Amino acid sequence: MIASSTTYPEFLKEFPEYAQTTSLDELRQRDYARLDRNGHVYLDYTGAGLYGESQVQKHHELLSREVYGNPHSSNPTSLAATELVEQTRQAILHFFNAPADEYVVIFVSNASGALKLVGESYPFAAGGHYLLTFDNHNSVNGIREYALARGAEVTYIPMVLPEMTIDEQKLRQSLTLAKPGQPNLFAYPAQSNFSGRLHSLEWIEQAHAQGWDVLLDVAAFAPTNPLDLSRYHPDFVPISFYKMFGYPTGIGALIARRQALAKLTRPWFAGGTITVVSVQGEKHYMAEAPNAFEDGTLNFLSIPAVEIGLDHLSAIGLPKIHDRVHSLTGWLIKELLQLTHSNGQPVLKIYGPTHADQRGGTIALNFLDDKGNVIDHRSIEEQANRVKISLRTGCFCNPGAGEIALGISSGELSACFTRPDHETHLSYDDFRLCIDGKASGAVRISAGMVSNFADIEAFLRFAKSMAI
Ligand SMILES: Cc1ncc(COP(=O)(O)O)c(C=O)c1O
Predict the structure, then answer these.
(1) pLDDT per residue over 359-412, tens digit each?
(2) Comparing C-alpha atoms, which of 231, 139, 251 is closest to residue 187?
(3) What percent of the chain has pLDDT over 70?
(4) Which of 172, 163, 207, 165 minimizes the C-alpha distance to 187?
(5) Is ligand 1 within 6 A of the CB of residue 110?
(6) ω into 353 cis (within 30 of 0)
(7) Is the CB of 395 under 6 A from ligand 1?
């Protein structure tokens, strides 16, 4: 398919580094054959990464070889499970180059679980602050409810169009808001799950210097970018492993700095999180981290599949995946920007960086008609479904980025939310009416580990078919 493409040589000329990533084409044929066998054009890697069949086989073999019992005991089958769980913790620290005396890996069910753990346990209080960027996933936004409930101030740092960067001047001003000695938490994503924009990792130390603990959301960043935790030292790092290598689902981690973890207080205790609990004495003693943060029985049969996934990613090499995604995304953006209707109007609008720099493989856009009106993203998804293109539409759980990109003002939003009939319930269609028929969402395409030139060409064909 690639050889027959007339534009492939042009693409290679512009992105010569792509030629160094052809081992991923072989990997796709070998380990992801189901993609082409079933005719899928998968462009939702920010939704979920894809697993190689070999990962599942290795996991299956591992489970078939031994008997694994519930950890937290000293019987042989329990110890066998504990050993694998602890081995996986070490593998995660190793993958992120995180010193074991500085960081702890806490297993959770996904990145949202990691974020909830921080939110419910962080010592927010009056005088304290939760500072976050507009560009954040809802599971980071949601921490504001814990902060507000405990009297902390919540401040959002706005974004700047058209690049969808964070307003650096506002960031610098906001970082001065931390009151010394108070609980101050600053949260931002290393890569936007809306626009693909990369945000500076240098902000971590700038924030530390001004008295903030830093939560760096790497859920969208980690699948295609190396993160070196011996170089950067965020306090809380939430991750979903299915986003990195597709399998297993249901396992995430909070990689936390020991010194920041010591500030957290859990709102309850559960099986596995304590050393001693007394009913008559009405007393409980928390275990050390990580146990104090892992409620009940871990998903001990799936956790070993995380090490298999990390090995899979390491064997390929993140730099290679990064180069491939960078090339394909750069080319796709360039080609998309050239598409016009017969009257010269653009076929689409891209939100965020319209070049390959400082961005990952996620592109948010809307299709426009020949008068410049946005075409409802739901109709785009329906049309893409018909040609087996898996893309995602909506606001991708990132309303802050969506509102800025789509030009929805805070005035419009509060007028909508304060209407008596919208007090407790608001449907999507009502919301659209409220904001005067403006687009309330976008189309997101995202390239990943085994994306290839043919996937990009398929999307370009689809985009061209929208021109009238
Ligand atoms: C940047 C970012 N943070 C957090 C999450 C939440 O991940 P999960 O749904 O696996 O909990 C996502 C999911 O898309 C994400 O993209």
Answers:
(1) 999 999 999 999 999 999 999 999 999 999 999 998 889 988 888 888 888 888
(2) 139
(3) 98
(4) 207
(5) yes
(6) no
(7) no
